[in-house]
Every structure is written in structure tokens, then in C-alpha cells.
């Protein structure tokens, strides 16, 4: 491989630029833009161009020369026919330049409209999915033989049983932190014993369900979206359909039912761990005895709070599974769509869970407060 | 300078395989394979399924290290311990994967621009010009540049993948089943396109294919893998002369033999 060279000779009063050597991506001295500028300076003198000594010319070098010439043939050019072909090819494409993406003057209004429409279409599709599930449940009540028990129990194990350690850990730690921080505040008012009320109501009614919802959305929701999404990419869902197996009955319904059963149980489990954490912390921090804590808890936290927590768990579970399956079914066969829809699925389910939690708070504001 | 066909000045063969053996656990794939491919040749690698064609191809491009033996491209070992040299060598060949292997997160333009951007010596407007040129070479239009790979048809995916493989103007093009999954008409067009580009750019071609029409249309030489060895290598006529059960079987279908004889003549 030889280096690309530029030589300027005077011949019969006119300037002649002689190019020689290999003119390729590998041999042009980087950065290429500087070479282009240098050639462009030469063009200003309107010289003749002699390219016959170039041994190799590739399209990158041809484009550099063509651009230096101002995208037109120079007045005097000597070039081998082989290389002339290359320039002719460059001429055909470079003329129209880069296709400029069409610019909309009111782009933000369009974006807003698209966002609204896509939100509406997601909502509609999710309602459709929910309706399909209700029909499926009706069908399965009539045909109990078709109930997908195996899928249901597999999902229950994956999203319920396997989530027990992490939910217990998180609940316990949050209980400790909450108890510790509240104790510091309550002490200054001499209201130490109210730690039981505070922990009981906040964990059972609010923190338990929301914590579990966030954890399950991140853990099982993302897994469900990714699983159904990959099945879309590899056409497994179409294969199921050709075998006459309903995707909503076999894929979506077991997931929704499994989370509907697992979430309330996880909520009770996580709340219990949180109360225990708070109890341990209160005992260490304020010498509140375990016996007193356990004795006081049922008196200051009406049982309605437990039902509210469990009810929230049920609703969150159904919503998380529905959202996860909905986004999974919308995955297009490429990696980008899979990753972005998995993210959207998790973000949407956490957001929806918290919105629904707020609705619950308003609707149940008169219940369970002693 | 006369208009002689454009070839790359080479002293050593484009590909030089010496004493190559491959073994996966107990399973022996290749036993002592020696193969030379001269610059400018178009070699079709043929063999039954499971005969290790694709494995050999992966060893040629350095995706897989052979158990024994060496693979040299342009006189340099493909698995050079020096990362700088290895990288430089990898810029001298392009590979067209069976499914295209386009980056699905990038548009057609960005897919073709990817190897160019990796050079870090070109500015964006230069890259855009080059991408448009490559698109023109594979007979696609500028408006296709903004499409995403998921929006392309099978034939277009192959063309874009080819444009990407050619974006650095490689001296060697490695094709894995270039026409698999294309209908006969598209496959014929793709073969024509490859042939035209080879004439224009003068690169060496190694390909694995099952399709007799593709072999006939492209390959100037054949290499036959069977029984873990290279049982024949040469022009179509030379390969036909070798008496081996696989060769007899493979070329016994009248269509295949006719197509290849026609291509060879």
C-alpha cells in the first residue's frame, strides 16, 4: 500500500495537479476533512487534474475529490476509464445530497396529538384485553376442563413464592427505618406509645401494598412483558394460535389470576415483616416491650385497614399483570421495541398503582380510622 | 494507465488455511484442512449440513479459534495477538450474515454508517455522502435510508447488510448463505448485484450456500467439505471429476449439475 500524494507541476503555463499512490480510506491521511480543504484550496487556482497515476481509488476518496471539486466535473481532467466510472457513480448520488427529514412547523402539536392518540389506543386495547379475560373466565366456568392449572401454578410460584424473601427483607427494613425516625419525633412530644398507631396504620394500610406493588411490577411485570415480547419476536404466539390455543386463555389469564392471588398474600406478608421490623426497632430504641406492642396493635388499628390493604393488593396485582401482558403483546420484532416496551410497562404499572392508591385513599377516607 | 480489471495488489493469497483442525469436546468437525484462496477469486464452500461449513467460515473471520492450525488473511494471522493489528485486519474484510444481522435499534443510514463512524476520521457530511453512494451501489434509494430494519423486506435487509459489509470497501467479502430466504427471482437479482459489484470493486469472495443457482452464478471455484476434510477444491469441472459419494449425491440432481455446468462454461 502506498500513501496518497499530491504534486503540483507547471506545464505550459498552466497548473497541473498530479495525484498518485493509493487513494483509499486506509491510505488518505486523517482527518479526511483537512485533506478535502487542501484539495479545495487547489481548486481555487483552476488547475488541470491528472489522476492517471492513482493506482487504487475507492469511493471514499472519490467522494473527497468530488466534494473538493464542488460536486462538478473539473474543466480539465485526465483519469483512467475505470476510475471515471467511479466518479460517474458518485455524480449520480451526491447530486441530490442528504434526504432532509421533513420538518413540521407545528411539531409539538403533532407530538402532543400522537401522544394522546397512543395513550387512548393503549387504554382501549387494555379495556379490550380485560373484556377478553372476563369472557375467558365465563368460558372456563362453563368448560372447567380447559382451565390452565399448570400455567397458573407456575406463575403463582414464580411471581408469588419466589418473591417472598425480597418482600420480607424490604418490609422489615422499611419498618425499622420508619419506626426509628418516628420514635425520634414522638419522643420530643412524650408520645412514645403512639408509635404503635403510627406504624400499624401506615404500614398495613399504605406502605405494605405500595411497596409490594413496586417490587412486583419491577420483578414480575418486567419478566411478563419480556417473556410475551420474545414470544412475539420468535412467532411463538402465532404458533400457539395455529394450534388453536387462545393466547389470552393460556398466556394472559394465568398471569393475571396468579398475581391476583399472590399479591394480597404478599401484601400481608410484607406488612407483617414491616410491623415486626418496627416492633424490634421500637423495642431497642424506646424499650417498648413486644407484649405491649402486640397487645395494643389490634386495638388501635381496626381490622378494616387489613381489608383495605388486601383489597389494594388484589387490584394492583390485576393491574400490573394486565399492563405487563398488554405491552408484551405490543412488542414489534426488534430489540429496540422489546427494551423500550419493557421499560414502559414497568413505569406504567408503578405509576398506575400509585394513582389507584390515591383513589383508594380518597374513597376509603372514612373507613378504618379509629 | 490502461483499463485493466481492478484488483488489489497482493503478494500473498487472500486466505491461507494451514493444518486446520476443529474439535468441540469429543466431536471432530475438521481434520487437517489446507486451503488457499487467491485474491479476486470467488469460492463457494459446499458440504452437507453439519459438515462444518459455517464453522469454517467463522474461523476464517476470526469469530472462532480453531483447535489447531492457522488462518491467515492477506498474509497476516486473523487472530493476531496485537489488538491494533487485529483491528486493522478486520477492516479489510466484510461479512454478510445469513439473517443480515442489522442493528435493529439503528436506521438503515446508521447501520451503514456504523463502520465508517468507527474509523473516527470522517466527518458527518462525508459519511452521509458515502452512505448514499453505498445505497446506490446496492440499488436502494436515498429515501430508504431513514427506514428501520424492522420495516424492510427480506431482500432489502440483504441489500442493506451488503451495503454495510461493503462500507469500508473490503478486499474480502465473506457471505453466509447470501440468498437463503429469498424467492428465486430476488435471489437471482441479488446474485447479479453481487457479481456486478465484484467486477467493479474487485474483492475476493468466500461463500457458503446450498443454492445451486447461487453457486453457478457466483462461484468461480468450489471447495467441498465432507468427512471432516476438504475432499475437493478447484473449478467446477475439477470438482466433478473427483469420485466421492457426497459430490456424486450433491451434484446428482440434474438441476444442480446443469446450473453449475452452465455457470462454469
UniProtKB/TrEMBL annotation, chain A:
Q: InterPro entries from the xrefs?
A: ABC_MlaE_roteobac, Permease_MalE
- Residues crossing the lipid bilayer are 123-142, 163-182, 194-217, 256-284, 304-329, 341-363
Q: Does the keyword Cell inner membrane apply?
A: yes
Q: Does the keyword Disulfide bond apply?
A: no
Provide the protein's localization.
Cell inner membrane
UniProt GO MF annotations: phospholipid transporter activity
Q: Which Pfam families match?
A: MlaE
Q: Which GO terms describe its cellular component?
A: ATP-binding cassette (ABC) transporter complex
Source superkingdom: Bacteria
What are the protein's UniProt keywords?
Answer: Cell inner membrane, Cell membrane, Membrane, Transmembrane, Transmembrane helix
UniProt membrane topology term = Multi-pass membrane protein
Family in the record: Belongs to the MlaE permease family.
Task: Tell me what this protein is called.
Answer: ABC transporter permease
UniProtKB/TrEMBL annotation, chain B:
Does the record's keyword annotation contain ATP-binding? yes
Q: Residue limits of the ABC transporter domain?
A: 15-252
A UniProt-annotated Pfam family? ABC_tran
Q: What protein name does the entry list?
A: ATP-binding cassette domain-containing protein
Species assigned in the record? Candidatus Accumulibacter affinis
Q: Does the keyword Disulfide bond apply?
A: no
Keywords, sorted A to Z:
ATP-binding, Cell membrane, Membrane, Nucleotide-binding, Transport
Q: What Gene Ontology terms describe what this protein does at the molecular function level?
A: ATP binding; ATP hydrolysis activity
Amino acid at each position: 500500500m502506498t500513501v496518497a500524494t499530491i504534486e503540483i507541476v507547471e506545464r505550459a503555463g498552466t497548473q497541473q495537479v498530479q495525484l498518485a499512490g493509493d487513494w483509499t480510506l486506509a491510505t488518505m491521511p486523517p482527518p479526511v476533512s483537512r485533506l478535502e480543504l487542501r484539495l479545495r484550496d487547489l481548486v481555487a487556482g483552476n488547475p488541470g487534474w491528472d489522476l492517471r497515476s492513482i493506482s487504487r481509488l475507492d469511493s471514499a476518496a472519490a467522494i473527497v475529490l468530488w466534494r473538493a471539486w464542488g460536486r462538478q466535473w473539473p474543466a480539465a481532467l485526465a483519469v483512467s476509464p475505470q476510475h471515471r466510472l467511479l466518479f460517474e457513480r458518485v455524480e449520480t448520488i451526491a447530486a441530490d445530497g442528504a434526504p432532509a427529514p421533513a420538518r413540521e412547523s407545528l411539531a409539538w402539536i403533532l407530538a402532543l396529538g400522537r401522544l394522546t392518540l397512543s395513550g387512548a389506543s393503549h387504554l382501549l386495547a387494555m379495556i379490550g384485553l380485560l373484556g377478553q379475560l372476563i369472557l375467558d373466565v365465563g368460558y372456563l366456568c362453563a368448560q372447567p376442563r380447559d382451565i390452565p392449572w399448570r400455567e397458573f401454578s407456575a406463575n403463582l410460584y414464580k411471581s408469588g413464592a419466589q418473591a417472598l424473601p425480597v418482600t420480607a427483607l424490604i418490609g422489615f427494613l422499611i419498618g425499622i427505618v420508619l419506626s426509628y425516625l418516628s420514635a425520634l419525633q414522638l419522643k420530643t412530644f412524650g408520645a412514645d406509645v403512639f408509635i404503635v398507631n403510627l406504624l400499624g396504620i401506615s404500614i398495613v394500610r399504605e406502605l405494605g401494598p405500595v411497596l409490594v406493588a413496586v417490587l412486583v411490577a419491577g420483578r414480575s411485570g418486567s419478566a411478563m412483558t419480556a417473556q410475551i415480547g420474545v414470544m412475539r419476536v420468535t412467532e411463538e404466539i402465532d404458533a400457539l394460535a395455529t394450534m388453536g390455543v387462545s393466547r389470552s386463555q393460556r398466556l394472559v389469564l394465568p398471569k393475571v389470576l396468579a398475581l391476583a392471588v399472590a399479591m394480597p398474600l404478599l401484601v400481608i406478608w410484607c406488612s407483617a415483616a414491616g410491623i415486626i421490623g418496627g416492633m424490634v426497632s421500637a423495642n431497642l430504641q424506646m424499650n417498648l416491650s413486644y407484649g405491649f406492642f402486640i397487645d395494643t396493635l389490634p386495638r388501635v388499628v381496626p381490622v378494616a385497614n387489613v381489608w383495605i390493604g388486601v383489597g389494594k393488593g388484589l387490584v394492583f396485582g390485576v393491574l400490573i399483570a394486565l399492563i405487563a401482558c398488554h405491552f408484551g403483546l405490543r412488542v414489534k420484532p426488534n430489540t429496540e421495541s422489546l427494551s423500550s416496551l419493557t421499560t414502559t410497562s414497568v413505569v406504567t404499572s408503578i405509576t398506575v398503582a400509585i394513582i389507584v392508591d390515591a383513589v383508594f385513599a380518597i374513597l376509603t377516607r372514612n373507613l378504618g380510622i379509629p | 494507465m490502461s483499463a485493466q480489471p481492478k484488483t488489489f495488489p497482493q503478494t500473498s493469497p487472500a486466505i491461507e488455511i494451514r493444518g486446520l483442525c476443529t474439535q468441540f469436546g469429543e466431536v471432530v468437525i475438521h481434520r487437517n484442512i489446507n486451503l488457499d484462496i487467491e485474491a479476486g477469486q470467488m469460492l463457494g464452500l459446499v458440504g452437507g449440513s453439519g459438515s462444518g461449513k459455517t464453522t469454517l467460515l467463522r474461523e476464517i473471520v476470526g469469530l472462532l479459534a480453531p483447535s489447531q492450525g492457522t488462518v491467515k488473511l492477506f498474509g497476516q494471522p486473523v487472530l493476531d495477538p496485537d489488538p491494533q493489528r487485529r483491528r486493522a485486519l478486520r477492516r479489510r474484510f466484510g461479512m454478510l450474515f445469513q439473517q443480515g444481522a442489522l442493528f435493529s435499534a439503528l436506521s438503515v443510514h446508521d447501520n451503514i454508517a456504523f463502520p465508517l463512524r468507527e474509523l473516527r476520521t470522517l466527518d458527518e457530511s462525508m459519511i452521509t455522502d458515502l452512505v448514499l453512494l453505498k445505497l446506490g451501489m446496492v440499488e436502494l434509494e436515498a429515501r430508504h435510508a431513514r427506514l428501520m430494519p424492522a420495516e424492510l423486506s427480506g431482500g432489502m435487509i440483504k441489500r442493506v447488510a451488503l451495503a454495510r459489509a461493503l462500507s469500508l470497501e473490503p478486499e474480502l467479502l465473506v457471505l453466509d448463505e447470501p440468498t437463503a430466504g429469498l424467492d428465486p427471482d430476488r435471489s437471482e437479482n441479488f446474485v447479479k448485484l453481487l457479481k456486478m459489484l465484484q467486477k467493479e470493486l474487485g474483492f475476493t469472495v468466500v461463500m457458503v450456500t446450498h443454492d445451486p443457482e447461487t453457486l453457478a452464478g457466483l462461484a468461480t471455484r468450489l471447495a467441498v467439505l465432507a468427512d471432516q476434510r476438504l475432499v475437493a477444491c478447484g473449478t467446477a469441472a475439477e470438482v466433478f471429476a473427483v469420485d466421492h459419494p457426497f459430490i456424486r449425491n450433491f451434484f446428482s440432481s440434474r438441476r444442480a449439475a446443469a446450473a453449475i455446468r452452465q455457470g462454469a462454461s
